[in-house]
Amino acid sequence: MSRASAIEIAGLDVTFGRGRRAFRAVRDASFSVTAGSSFGLVGESGSGKTTVLRALAGLLPPAARIRGEMRLHGEPLRPARSRPLRRRLQMVFQDPYGSLHPRHTVDRILGEPARVHGLDSIDRRIVDALADVGLDASFRFRFPHQLSGGQRQRIAIARALIIEPAIVLLDEPTSALDVSVQAEILNLLQRLRREHALTFVLVSHDLAVVSHMCEALAVMRAGEVIENAGVETLRADALRHEYSRELLQAAQGYRTTPAGMPPAER
Ligand SMILES: Nc1ncnc2c1ncn2[C@@H]1O[C@H](COP(=O)(O)OP(=O)(O)OP(=O)(O)O)[C@@H](O)[C@H]1O
Ligand SMILES: [Mg+2]
Fold first, then answer.
1. What pTM, to 2 d.p., does this model score?
2. Closest protein CA for atom 4 of ligand 1
3. What does the pLDDT average to over 217-243?
4. Distance 77 CA to ligand 1 centre (A)
């Protein structure tokens, strides 16, 4: 019955700064993510969601102190990441404007990670990665400013997928987008997860999105994971912790299905 864990975090602690300036952004956080599933990470602004993703991705500043355990498919994750390990785990950022180099073409943006990881047939991979996210090959020669917000986020997703990771960490992947485009990108992510058998960790402040996309979730508050639950608990409005229920109520216009999306097939 129990499927293997793709990610396990146990007692994770992240502290920024030293001495009196020290700030513990993540406190004794634990959760595990089943391989091939989509896991939601929710919580108010500043609760530590991005910090957890960055810790997993090895993207925290070197001065950050990290304690506790992180495992990827059972293997301990250390701060120094080997290239094969980095290849297995990719992150997509909230802001597709900030995350794509403004003076690089799509061709270069997609080609670079493939080259860094020593992959062959780069041209074919670029064309395939574009097709995967619903863009034709003519997009290769555009710059980020010549793309719409949705197209830009498609490129950011293609850049994460071109090196064929097993796990994708998505930090508010649609919050910078218009509502109609949000649904398109979420549907695209669902399809890509199925087709590539990916494991997702999805940070979102939108509980409708988590309800639609995820099988399980963790609720963070002030650096702590205060609740781990299956999505059916969220849908039944039966979250255990009062704060989690408040978060659910506060999610304005909460619907179990995001606007423009078909109801979840469960
Ligand atoms: N590099 C850093 N140096 C010092 N403090 C940091 C650093 N990065 C994050 N923090 C602090 O850690 C806390 C958690 O930040 P984090 O970005 O993880 O929150 P979040 O849950 O992702 O919030 P949001 O929903 O607004 O994106 C915040 O108080 C933030 O100011
Ligand atoms: Mg964040």
1. 0.92
2. 16
3. 92
4. 21
